[in-house]
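As a warm-up, study this chain.
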Amino acid sequence: LDGGARSSLVSLAGAAALLELLASIIRGLRRPISAPPHLSLLADCLLPMHMPTGMVDDSTPLLALIHRPLCLCIVAFVEGRPEAVHHVLRGVLSHWPSAATANSSKEVLLLHELEMLMEHAAPDALADPELRDLLVGVIVESFEGSKNFRVAERALLMFRSDAVLNLLRQHHAAVVPRLIQRLLQAASEHWNQSVLKMVGRALGKIDEM
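Now compare it with the structure written out below.
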């Protein structure tokens, strides 16, 4: 991906086709997935593919060219080796755009992927306090008052998922007060009316927890 914009597009288009095939292969692996070469494929190849921060155009990140089939591969791994979700979540979070890059389109993609992973995670997936704090921190920062409204909307959509809510419910005392505080803060600070309505619905869902 270092041969310029045109080279990157061609490389990623080819990678997307290969990932489609790879997802089918991963789903056919013997479970639980435990062979070292297979685990190396996840750690050394698939997770680093979240790294691209460039843009195809003003609204399309390079990651978008491979993200759907990449997610299929990642989810197939988690289904075949549930305990890998901790490593996968850390890997995805490690490639989160920094404030300096301000890549809101990539953030939207990664929020969607986080939701998919949480929906396939075991109830104890967030037992590690460090990982839990990191994950919740990314989610709440995504709907803070100054955030791009599309990023905020995608983060708030996560509260529609029963699987996500059930996972967060496992750590009610550690997670819910923090969520409520940041949602109330967003309700008073965010400028977008659609986001404000979604904040209200998210608060209602959390209240039911």
